[in-house]
Amino acid sequence: DTEVTQTPKHLVMGMTNKKSLKCEQHMGHRAMYWYKQKAKKPPELMFVYSYEKLSINESVPSRFSPECPNSSLLNLHLHALQPEDSALYLCASSQPPLGQGGTDTQYFGPGTRLTVL
Amino acid sequence: KQEVTQIPAALSVPEGENLVLNCSFTDSAIYNLQWFRQDPGKGLTSLLLIQSSQREQTSGRLNASLDKSSGRSTLYIAASQPGDSATYLCAVSRGTYKYIFGTGTRLKVLA
Questions:
Q1: Looking at CA atoms only, how far is residue A67 from chain B in angstroms?
Q2: Summary mean pLDDT of chain B
Q3: Nearest-by-Cβ selection for B31 from A55, A103, A109
Q4: Would you state the pLDDT for residue A102?
Q5: How many Å separate Cα A89 from the centre of its chain?
Q6: Which DSSP category does A97 fall into?
């Protein structure tokens, strides 16, 4: 099974709402990622969890709060978002790299299309 | 700072043509390079991953090459089909867990 699932597929929220995006994989991968992708732009890395610990935070505003409850699940909690946060949010997973550095093959979910009103 | 550029930005070809997509990167100190395809509004699908020590990888009608010294990779698609229509992204890995994505090539294969 090489599938990464994300829920919901679409989300519309107001600027005062609190919502969460969910991501799940059962490939035994110990690295999980959140990316943000604006229309016709490449994905931008937001967060990386390695062995359930936050490994990378690419200076993302605190209104985005990641959580990794276990090795299969990754959440992204959203609060007080701005309209410019509207985008496709992609989750990915991979095996941690062997040796020093690098990144193994990443498997992506279908994404959550977020609209902030 | 690593910059990754893909040329052309868009490409439209008739079905059956062989085609080449290009990816250029400014810093040759990479661990590996991965090619993805993305259908509109969907997630990314991994096509090929080339380690920095490798020169090429093949999967079916796809062949990707890597020339680290010149900072270039090419994705060759043989006998293109309408189902190949998508955006193709290359991504270079320069640090642990970090991929830097290229600007993408939007491919349309006409039946």
A1: 17
A2: 93
A3: A103
A4: 62
A5: 6
A6: P
